Predict the 3D structure of the following.
Amino acid sequence: MAETKDFKEPKGLPEGWKWVRLGDKDYFKIVGSGIEYFEGFKNYLSTNSVQGTKITHIEDVITYKNRPSRANMQPKKGKLAFARMRNTVKVLLINENLEKDYILSTGFVLLESKIEPKFVYQYLISDFFNTQKDILAEGTTQEAISNDDFNRIFIIFPENKLEQRKIAEILETVDNAIEKTEKIIEKYKRIKQGFLQDLLTKGIDENGNIRSEKTHKFKDSPIGRIPEEWEVVKLGEVSFITSSKRIYYDEYLTEGVPFFRSKEIIELFNGTFSGATLYISYDKFKNIMNKFGVPEAGDILITAVGTLGVVYLVKKEDLPFYFKDGNLLWLKLREKLNKVYFVKCFNLWYRIQEDDLIIGTSQPALTIEKLKKMLLPLPSLPEQQRIAEILSQIDQTIEKEEQYKEKLERLKQGLMQDLLTGKVRVNHLIEEGAENVST
């Protein structure tokens, strides 16, 4: 069956470019399993240890004798490793650190290349390669390519080594910019977490200083030491908490007023919402609105099943909509509680009190009565505003960096489409570099 999936020779290759199969021994060597004996300990990487091109965690710390049977691939500097499975992009370019301290799973293909390894690395990340891999992948428990498939998958590349290196260099520059931006995002997230902890236990005084027990008065409370000026209240004392009126399955429509479940609210929270899939009639919505009320801009929705405790501040552009009973809890905050302060700080309070707030084991849930009893530290409204502004500024910085990262990722995709196909050539850059060296 695999023979019917052979890929034909690509047509219209740029001048100076060629194509070869991954199984072509003049260009590639597929390294077999087996590792060298080593003393002491090494880190074992399964395919689950890698996401994209990043190592996310160590599967296990192993010795030579006491290791899983799959811990049997020997990384060597300059070789490439990629996961065999369908719909996965997991690629490593082996460096000195990986060679010295790691052993790979047999779920990886280990590849030695006579083509510039950094060029091949970029090609293995690309859609050109992974589309071929996904088409060929087969299996019952796990769909993956086999060694036979290497004679079907092809790669195109410039024969000039300098051109290979220049393409890899350009793409690597963007990769480095993405990685730098990711580190900035993580830095600001750590700063936010530190501020959050301090601001919700010590607060910020009218002079803009975080309080300390050396300079300000504190008191004991049911949630620990807090500034003397603060109160501790139950959420039910500073908000009205309810749910929705039941909408039955046969009342769902394919058009009308959007009907949200936890899924849609989580998507709105994450900025990934692409539209509702369920609706109710305008007449039904109008009847509920007149009798019981419906969510308005500035109201709060909290997920109560599945992924618990996601808190969302309803925006004007979300309206109109209704929501599923039991899936979401609906809050209207009273004047003593600033909306942004509540949204920014809810998750910390929730995590601390989570065990007391959740009911059920097989399907944990939040209820109105439980949420009403949740304890909140309550500064004055001006101080709540100050705290909200600081956290909002950090969030805006994080969002700005995330948007920049997305821009870089789009740039990288465009460059891969152009450079890895020869649609855009880099020969002039090579010539300019040679001229600069000679002068």
